[in-house]
Design goal:
1 helix, 52% strand
Length: 149
């Protein structure tokens, strides 16, 4: 996806979000944002640093902290690496309008990855352990996220 879709959806003269660029930092970081969006309601935005961007999923019912609980994760546009530290208010009328806070962040270890599955170990302050993202067959951009048993 790169960042074209991210840039197209935002007016950087109005939003405090970072414009950013593709950066290959060689790190394996993650962030989970608490997003109190005006239109979508409260949800988590889960982001993994990969390929010079933050691969991103919106999780309507929050990232599961218990083993075996499966949650829908809708893949959204890639975000710039600079978004890893973003928190603030996206102004009313702008894409994603509402308050964004950092729920958790840290590093992760990639265990397995292909086009339909990503397995990784989170090493955050709140989220720890092995998680899996699995793409749902026949559903565009829809994945399940769960903590391994």
């Amino acid at each position: 996806m790169a960042l074209e879709e991210y840039w197209r959806k935002r007016k950087f003269e109005k939003t405090p979000e970072p414009k950013g660029e593709v950066k290959f930092a060689g790190k394996s970081r993650f962030v989970v944002h608490d997003h109190y969006a005006e239109k979508a309601g409260h949800h988590h935005d889960f982001r993994l640093e990969m390929e010079g961007v933050l691969k991103s999923w919106a999780i309507p019912k929050l990232v599961p902290e218990e083993k075996g609980v499966k949650r829908l994760a809708v893949q959204v546009e890639d975000h710039p690496i600079d978004y890893i530290n973003f928190k603030g208010i996206i102004p009313k009328g702008e894409y994603g309008a509402g308050e964004v806070k950092i729920f958790d962040k840290g590093n992760y270890k990639l265990i397995e990855r292909d086009e339909n599955k990503i397995v990784f170990e989170l090493k955050g302050k709140k989220l720890k352990g092995v998680y899996t993202l699995v793409k749902l067959k026949g559903r565009k951009n829809q994945w399940l996220i769960f903590k391994a048993k």
